């Protein structure tokens, strides 16, 4: 549910935005305007935060929680293609093109989003070079993720697909994942049983550590070597774009 920011929300949002390098370089008046115009979106686990087909209201960040972006399906087989945790921004493409959102955003855990409204987003694009650089970095990251997912789904084995979704390409900002096997299977577009088999294989290779049905530790260096050796032509860890 979208709401105006409460006093506690405003404190959290102000702290979050002040951690963004582009925000600290804005004029104080613009900083105040962003804090005044920002809104929050709350959802409990399993609820849809943002519907596919609705107008994009702006640029979003995950303040806390864990969400997935997925293409909705009428046969109950939704295709998830990205997961985001606290601190991640998304939706710049829809905000820039001012078109209906093509995917839905679902809370995998209780979550809260920050929305930087469209008018302020576009004003920053027109006036702030640091903000443009930040948006371009996010777009480049999303392009690399999309290309890696396409290649893995086309040629990768079960273990390789799971390894990709556990790699730095998707979790570059986290020390520990603490993902359930169900959550990982949902992200990789496979059943929990299939995810269990693939994770058991990765664990036997020493690439991940499992505890009580959760992925609690990942050897990112070894995982990268495994992905590179398994599919050298796909280059899943490569950065795409300029």
Describe this structure in words.
It is a single chain. The chain has 242 residues and is an alpha+beta fold. 47% of the residues lie in helices and 23% in strands. The chain has eleven helices and twelve strands. The strands form three sheets. The chain has a five-stranded antiparallel sheet. A four-stranded antiparallel sheet has the order 3-8-5-6. It is elongated, with a radius of gyration of 18 Å.
Describe what is shown at a glance.
The chain has 242 residues and is of the alpha+beta class. The protein has eleven helices and twelve strands.
What's the helix and strand layout?
Elements: E1 2-4, H1 7-18, H2 21-24, H3 28-37, E2 39-43, E3 48-50, E4 58-64, E5 66-71, E6 79-85, E7 89-90, H4 92-97, E8 104-107, E9 111-117, H5 118-127, H6 129-155, H7 158-165, H8 168-171, E10 179-180, H9 181-188, H10 192-204, E11 208-211, E12 214-218, H11 220-230
Antiparallel strand pairs: 1-2, 2-9, 3-8, 4-7, 4-9, 5-6, 5-8, 10-12, 11-12
Helix pairs in contact: 6-7, 7-10, 9-10
Task: Give structural attributes.
5-stranded antiparallel beta sheet, 4-stranded antiparallel beta sheet, alpha+beta, disordered C terminus, 23% strand, 11 helices, 242 residues
- Looking at the structure, what is the overall shape? elongated
Give the low-confidence spans.
232-242
Content-based structural category: alpha+beta
Strand content: 15-25%
Radius of gyration: 18 Å
Number of helices: 11
């Amino acid at each position: 549910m979208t709401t105006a920011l409460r006093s506690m929300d405003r404190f959290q949002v102000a702290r979050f935005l002040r951690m963004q390098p582009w925000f600290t370089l804005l004029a104080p008046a613009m900083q105040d305007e962003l804090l005044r115009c920002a809104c929050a979106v709350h959802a409990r686990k399993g609820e849809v935060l943002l519907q596919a087909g609705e107008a994009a209201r702006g640029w979003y960040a995950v303040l806390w929680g864990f969400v997935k972006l997925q293409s909705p399906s009428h046969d109950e087989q939704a295709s998830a293609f990205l997961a985001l945790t606290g601190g991640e921004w998304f939706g710049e493409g829809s905000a820039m093109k001012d078109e209906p959102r093509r995917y839905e955003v679902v809370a995998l855990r209780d979550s809260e989003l920050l929305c930087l409204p469209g008018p302020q987003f576009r004003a920053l694009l027109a006036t702030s070079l640091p903000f443009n650089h930040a948006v371009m970095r996010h777009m480049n990251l999303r392009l690399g993720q999309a290309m890696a997912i396409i290649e893995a789904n086309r040629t990768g084995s079960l273990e390789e697909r799971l390894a990709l979704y556990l790699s730095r390409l998707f979790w570059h900002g986290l020390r520990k994942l603490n993902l359930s096997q169900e959550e990982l299977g949902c992200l990789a577009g496979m059943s929990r049983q299939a995810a269990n088999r693939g994770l058991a294989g990765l664990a036997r290779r020493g690439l991940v550590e499992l505890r009580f049905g959760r992925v609690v530790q990942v050897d990112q260096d070894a995982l990268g070597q495994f992905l590179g050796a398994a599919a050298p032509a796909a280059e899943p860890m490569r950065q795409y774009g300029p």
